[in-house]
User: Which sequence fits this backbone?
């Protein structure tokens, strides 16, 4: 099968998200200039640079009650900061609960029954029991092609690691089993690892 997206795929569901998988989930927490907090998952998310550490996520919808994008993007545009919380398998239901389209003043921490902790380098909350969290300052919001597509880039200013996930000086993902997004309504969990050496590595 081959198709050009502009012509449609003719399938019951769009296969695009099922092709680009698995995708890490950025569980983005923000605080608006009015003090209301928001927490929402984004699977168009990734790290994009080492020095300085930088991340990005993309939002693909607008809300009628916000000036740009959904609550997350609007809050970041107002305040210039956000926090990326890493999703563990044990928090899958809480993450899913925060994925709904709620009123801008809805606090998803409370809605999902999640404990929050204050970030250190930015005025924002993080998910207290997340295995890791990245405190970020906005560098740019890029308008992508399409009606409501925005890519948000940020520099990481603080990193939280849950102590039980550190083993022999390494951040061990098998301790918390990261959740990943697949296509349709499907998810995957990382449980098994293997290592490969690059061709130019020795020892």
Assistant:
């Amino acid at each position: 099968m081959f198709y050009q997206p502009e012509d449609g795929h003719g399938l019951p569901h769009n296969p695009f998200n099922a092709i680009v998988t698995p995708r890490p989930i950025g569980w983005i927490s923000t605080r608006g200039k009015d003090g209301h907090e928001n927490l929402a998952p984004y699977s168009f998310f990734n790290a994009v640079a080492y020095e300085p550490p930088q991340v990005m996520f993309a939002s693909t919808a607008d809300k009628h009650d916000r000036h740009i994008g959904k609550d997350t993007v609007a809050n970041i545009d107002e305040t210039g900061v956000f926090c990326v919380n890493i999703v563990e398998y044990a928090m899958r239901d809480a993450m899913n609960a925060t994925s709904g389209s709620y009123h801008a003043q809805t606090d998803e921490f409370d809605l999902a029954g999640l404990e929050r902790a204050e970030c250190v380098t930015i005025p924002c909350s993080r998910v207290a029991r997340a295995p890791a969290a990245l405190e970020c300052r906005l560098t740019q919001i890029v308008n992508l092609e399409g009606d409501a597509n925005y890519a948000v880039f940020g520099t990481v200013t603080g990193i939280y690691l849950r102590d039980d996930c550190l083993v022999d000086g390494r951040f061990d993902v098998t301790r918390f089993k990261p959740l990943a997004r697949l296509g349709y309504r499907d998810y995957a969990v990382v449980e098994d690892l293997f290592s490969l050496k690059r061709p130019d590595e020795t020892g």
